[in-house]
Amino acid sequence: MSFKPPEEEEFHPAPDSAITIVRLKRAHGYVDDALGAAESCQEDNLIEPRYLGPTAVELMDIAHEIRGLISTLRERLGNKGHGVD
């Protein structure tokens, strides 16, 4: 799964783009929570590593994609880390 943003000249930010960033950040928080739960499962030996490993990798990939989307959207909006946190 990978995000490929449209070309610069094709991008027209929607009026609710800031809300999109907020929702992506919320989603990232949920993924972080899931990663924390996976770590706790590993520490407590609740699931075999062969099952937990691929799930943790997928969660890390999702978190990475979300961070990329947020970064791309901020750059396109001219908001490089300021305003929506």
Q: Helical residue percent?
A: 55-70%
Summarize model confidence as the mean pLDDT.
Answer: 83
SSE string, helix = H, strand = E? HH
What amount of the residues lies in strands?
A: under 5%
The largest pleated sheet is described as: none
Inertia-based shape = elongated
> What would you report as the Rg, rounded to the nearest angstrom?
16 Å
Which stretches are low in confidence, meaning pLDDT under 50 for 5 or more residues running?
none
Please characterize this protein's 3D structure.
The chain has 85 residues and is mainly alpha-helical. α1 packs antiparallel against α2.
What would you say about this model in short?
The protein is mainly α and about 80 residues long.
What does the secondary structure layout of this molecule look like, with pairings?
Elements: H1 17-43, H2 49-77
Helix pairs in contact: 1-2
Spell out the key features of this protein:
85 residues, mainly alpha, 2 helices, 66% helix
